């Protein structure tokens, strides 16, 4: 910046002639303003003639002087154009000094922003290099692991994995059978079918043939199979073979849920989800 705009602050001292001319201009303008003000004051004290032409002329004169006065009030020294070369040179130097100061501030701001961007770029490059190093390490580990796996005998690997899987499946099947047997014994003992006498009374009291009721264990089995086989449609229609006390028991303890729109359908609560 300094090489394009040399320092001019030391040369901004106005010559004596230029200062004197500016003072003279200001005094001349001020005298003109005072003259206009005195004319306006005289207009207020003048005795108007009875002639309409004279009154109209004075009114127009007053309006013209008022407009001129307002114009001079609004004008500023910057609007005055000087013809003296020294004055113009001094004003030009002041404007150039202002422009230089503004450009220096702009340069400092741009340099600060560039410095911050350079720091951000260095951090991003460092992060990129670190990520590349991590990626290289992972690729090397993957290649090493792949090589070790390829060196192992395929038959022994498959045989060992399949045996282990078969053992786990066998354990799960045995555990499943034990759970089902325990559940069946518990339900048989504590939730038996209603007495045959009640079924006979119901059959005698109704003209329609009685439907054979199913156990609570069978109801749960139907609900479980429906949930596992068609999880998108787990609801089961409640028919006459479902003993109502069993249905109320399942619903009351949260084991089953009714359909929100159809009370004659219910589903098993998805405890596995």
Uncertain regions: pLDDT < 50 for 5+ in a row? 1-14
Assess the beta-strand content as a share of residues.
Answer: under 5%
Number of helices: 7
On the 0-100 scale, what is the average pLDDT? 78
The tally of strands reads: 3
Query: What separation lies between the terminal Cα atoms?
Result: 72 Å
Q: What is the overall silhouette?
A: elongated
Major sheet, described briefly? 3 strands, antiparallel
What is the spatial order of strands in the main beta sheet? Answer: 1-3-2
What's the order of the H and E elements?
A: HHHHHHEHEE
Descriptive account of the structure:
The protein has 273 residues and is mostly helical. It contains 7 helices and 3 strands; from the N terminus they run ααααααβαββ. It has helices spanning 16-45, 52-74, 85-151, 154-190, 196-205, 216-229, 244-252; strands at residues 236-237, 256-258, 265-268. The protein has a 3-stranded antiparallel beta sheet. A hairpin with a 6-residue loop joins β2 and β3. α1 runs antiparallel to α2 (52-74). The protein starts with 15 loop residues before the first helix and ends in a 5-residue tail after the last strand.
